[in-house]
Amino acid sequence: MFRKRKKNTSLRIEVREVLRGCEAGRLQSVGYMQVIPLVSDLNDDRFVSPVQCDADVYTTRYGTLGFRNPSDSVMIVPCHAGYVVKQHAQDHAMAHAGVVAAAGDRRYNTAACIQASQGGFIKKGSYRMLILPHALREHALRKRGEKNYQKLWEDISVFNQRFGVTSQGHLEYFLQAFKKELDEFVAEFECVPRQIGAIVLIDDRVVGIERAPSHAYWQSIWPSLIRECYGSLAIEAAKANGDRPPERSPRLSLPVEIASLEELESLIAEIASQEDERARSTVRELLDEPLDLQHEETVADVSIDTATSEHFTGQVIREGEKIVYASLPATSAFVKSQEWTRAEPFAI
Questions:
Q1: Do the beta carbons of residue 198 and residue 23 sit within 8 Å?
Q2: What angle do CA 221, 313, 241 make, to 5 degrees?
Q3: Are residues 129 and 50 in contact, defined by beta-carbon separation less than 8 angstroms?
């Protein structure tokens, strides 16, 4: 339930409200990353993504990113959408989410250049969309109101240095160095029927909650989320701890001899069930966590709010009390935390 806080005009909800109307699908797991699909019969096709409608993207000056919505639907620009182009132009990313009215054209002068010292403007056209790596999203959101095109250069430089690539404010250096690994995440984690969101975990730790207004919208943004945003976290975990996390080995030991294929299938199913339950148990305690929503703007009858809590920082877009879009990456402090507790059975 939405309720106003006493001391200011912001709203407070619980994480479970972001997940209202969803059910948890079967866990998908590859290496360090796990994904719990959020499935639902709720399918609001009044909203489209820039990918769905082949929106024209462009820059008019450094730090100003424009979108032309050619559709008759409201376009939601995902939080921290970015564009790395092949032309002689400076790559840009949003520092927050955006909303563009049907058949509308809108420019955001709070965008960030993500390619230091490169000149040139992005010509109006349709380009592949990325979503900033997880480690950069908290920095971008904190600086969402700044009109300074250089505001992420130092953060990108530090990010690159952690991965052993050239430590300059060029995000493309990271993308080029780990292209093969990032591409693999897209192939390994596929959307399931009726999916409109996901809870993403790295080594059994929740690192993000994502929700879209419709199945089609989700399918269009999922490759960007799993590739650059959460894929970068999985790569970092593998670099720090090795390719196979030892603590994620099966809790159920396989016998030396297996009598039949049916017995093997049964054992594999039990191992998968145990892994599924471990992942869900890390989510349970978060459902009651309060989220403070600070209103940013209202466009086309929907409200964009910045959401903060002890463990998450991101944005939601709502129509009244109905959440139509949410992107809640975990804070860097939460990602690094080693303390996990168990709570009541998982329910949405």
A1: no
A2: 80
A3: yes
Q: 156: Cβ–Cβ under 8 A, 6 or more apart, which residues?
A: 114, 116, 136, 168, 169, 170, 171
Which structure tokens are listed for 77?
A: 């620009």
User: Is the model's pLDDT at 153 over the cut of 60?
Assistant: yes
Least confident of 147-161, 275-289, 309-323: 275-289
Distance of alpha carbon 188 from its chain centroid, rounded?
17
The two structure tokens encoding residue 56: 């024209």
* Per-residue H/E/C for the chain: CCEECCCCCCEEEEHHHHCCCCEECCCEEECCEEEEEEECCCCCCCEECCCCCCCEEEEEECCEEEEECCCCCEEEECCCEEECCCCCCCCEECCCCEEECCCCEEEECCCEECECCCCCCCCCECCCCEECCHHHHHHHHHCCCCCCCCCCHHHHHHHHHHCCCCCCCEHHHHHHHCHHHHHHHHHHCCCCCCEEEEEEEECCEEEEEEECCCHHHHHHHHHHHHHHHHHHHHHHHHHHHCCCCHHHCCCCCCCCCCCCHHHHHHHHHHHHHHHHHHHHHHHHCCCCCEEEEEEEEEECCEEEEEEECCCEEEEEEEECCEEEEEEEEECHHHHHCCCCCCCCCCCC
> Which residues neighbour 200 within 8 Å (Cβ) at sequence distance 6 or greater?
33, 34, 35, 36, 206, 207, 208, 209, 210, 225, 226, 230
Distance of alpha carbon 180 from alpha carbon 31, whole angstroms: 15
Q: Please check whether residue 233 is in contact with residue 203, taking contact to mean a CB–CB distance below 8 angstroms.
A: no
Question: 234 falls in which pLDDT band (50, 70, 90)?
Answer: very high
Distance CA 175, CA 180 (A): 9
